[in-house]
Amino acid sequence: MGTRSAIGYLQPSGSVRAVYCHWDGYPSHQIPILNKRYNTLAKVKALIKPGSMSSLETKYTWTLFEVREPQPLYHCEAGFEAGYSSPPITSGRPLDTWFKEHDCEYLYVWEGRWIIYMKPGLHQSP
Prior knowledge:
Helix content: 10-25%
Distance between the termini: 21 Å
Radius of gyration: 14 Å
């Protein structure tokens, strides 16, 4: 089962614009990638523009036979029927809205740096 997360940025209105990411959403996986590759607002906006993703960074494509440079694997690349991919979603504060409505365990929000929000009641191993 995937550790579900959402990745996005804080808008001037105080709302969060983000996309769903299915696999490997735990901080020890996501934060190093986000800090290295997506460390400006422009890069974060470009990251989430295609919509929801299976993985933030993988070398595999949807066929699993093709290999490419590590990059996000977006749902829109899968070639499935319309509706499989979700566009970026804007959700207002409080941030627990994300956890209730979007089935995520972690929310990564760019606010000039990456801030991690964790689903209420989720206990992280030391």
